[in-house]
């Protein structure tokens, strides 16, 4: 990466209102059949265009072809029954109706490879592709077959590795695994969660990232955050082991959060995608606010390892809000880039 402080987003971006109900998670599609296939591709083009207009350096598909960052991947696997749904508590926090694992899980065919090839054809910029992490996958399911969270996570890690290798071959530069569950199940993360992630990236030559956040800006998450007290030290539990792992990049929530920024010292040496945009509010950050967050992070992350980013996905936000936030991210990163250039001249 040649640009200093290359910007990116955590993943999802709002969908056009002709494709899916806006500002809604698990929003149902408004099209069907071939019209839906075409509509998803058009939305991907629009999302890419908006990222490029905003000056985002590492672009993505904005997750325009997925209904949800976890369930859409799982829908493509065999061994999972989507008719037979159970209500579970996701991340010990909120109830959701989820599919059931009824037999051995496997990937019969690629899930996102055609979408990734399509994105690759549309741009020369580096592209990042998000996949759900193994632990977050098992937390979004009811298991009626394996009887062990760890066992099921290892199976998903193998499947994710197959998908990741094909994404790499399709020209993806950074493969990111979304693991919000890493902020909740600390013992499991340290016992097998990080090991599963390393299994998922085995043999990859492209860069790899793990995204760990406090969730989308939905009520269940913002209510949970209110219970976490004045200092959010969740990252402290998993950072030491992540620092020792093979993962290249760690993507984190920083702006407006109560995460003590000095915790970044625990992952010194890793590249860090620093969340400088709050996805839980409609108010637009000023470039100066973005720059402030990045300047704070620079005390613990070397400049060549700092990637300005959003706290989480922006799917539930209005399009104009998300777009303004991307502009703020670029402008704030540019301010700090200029400061660094002056220091070095
Ligand atoms: Zn997130």
UniProtKB/TrEMBL annotation:
Its EC number is 2.1.1.14. Residues 5-331 form the Cobalamin-independent methionine synthase MetE C-terminal/archaeal domain. GO terms for biological process: methionine biosynthetic process; methylation. The keyword Heme does not apply. It is an enzyme of class 2 (transferase). The keyword Transcription regulation does not apply. Its cofactor is Zn(2+). It comes from Vibrio brasiliensis LMG 20546. Keywords: Metal-binding, Methyltransferase, Transferase, Zinc. One of its GO terms (molecular function) is zinc ion binding. The lineage of its organism: Bacteria, Pseudomonadati, Pseudomonadota, Gammaproteobacteria, Vibrionales. InterPro entries: Met_Synth_C/arc (IPR002629), Met_Synthase_cat (IPR016456), UROD/MetE-like_sf (IPR038071). PANTHER family: 5-METHYLTETRAHYDROPTEROYLTRIGLUTAMATE--HOMOCYSTEINE METHYLTRANSFERASE. This is 5-methyltetrahydropteroyltriglutamate--homocysteine methyltransferase.
């Amino acid at each position: 990466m040649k640009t200093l402080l290359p910007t990116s987003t955590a993943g999802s971006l709002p969908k056009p209102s002709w494709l899916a109900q806006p500002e809604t998670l698990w929003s149902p599609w408004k099209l069907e059949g071939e019209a839906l296939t075409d509509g998803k591709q058009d939305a991907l083009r629009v999302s890419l265009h908006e990222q490029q207009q905003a000056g985002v350096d590492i672009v993505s598909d904005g997750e325009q072809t997925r209904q949800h960052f976890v369930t859409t991947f799982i829908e493509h696997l065999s061994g999972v029954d989507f008719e037979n749904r159970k209500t579970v508590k996701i991340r010990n926090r909120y109830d959701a109706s989820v599919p059931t694992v009824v037999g051995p899980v496997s990937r019969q065919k690629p899930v996102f490879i055609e979408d990734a090839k399509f994105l690759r054809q549309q741009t020369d910029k580096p592209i990042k592709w998000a996949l759900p992490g193994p632990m977050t996958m098992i937390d979004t399911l009811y298991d009626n077959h394996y009887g062990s969270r760890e066992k099921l996570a290892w199976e998903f890690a193998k499947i994710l590795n197959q998908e990741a290798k094909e994404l790499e071959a399709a020209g993806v530069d950074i493969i990111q695994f979304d693991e919000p569950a890493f902020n909740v199940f600390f013992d499991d993360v340290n016992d097998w969660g990080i090991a599963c992630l390393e299994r998922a990236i085995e043999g990859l030559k492209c860069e790899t990232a793990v995204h760990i956040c406090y969730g989308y800006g939905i009520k269940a998450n913002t209510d949970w955050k209110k219970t976490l007290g004045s200092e959010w030290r969740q990252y402290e539990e998993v950072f030491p082991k992540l620092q020792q792992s093979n993962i290249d990049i760690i993507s984190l929530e920083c702006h407006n959060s109560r995460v003590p920024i000095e915790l970044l010292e625990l992952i010194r040496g890793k590249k860090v995608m620093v969340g400088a945009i709050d996805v839980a509010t409609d108010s637009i950050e000023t470039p100066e606010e973005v720059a402030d967050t990045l300047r704070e992070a620079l005390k613990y992350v070397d400049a060549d390892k700092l990637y300005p980013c959003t706290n989480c996905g922006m799917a539930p936000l209005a399009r104009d809000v998300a777009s303004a936030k991307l502009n703020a991210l670029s402008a704030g990163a540019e301010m700090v880039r200029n400061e660094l250039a002056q220091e070095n001249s």
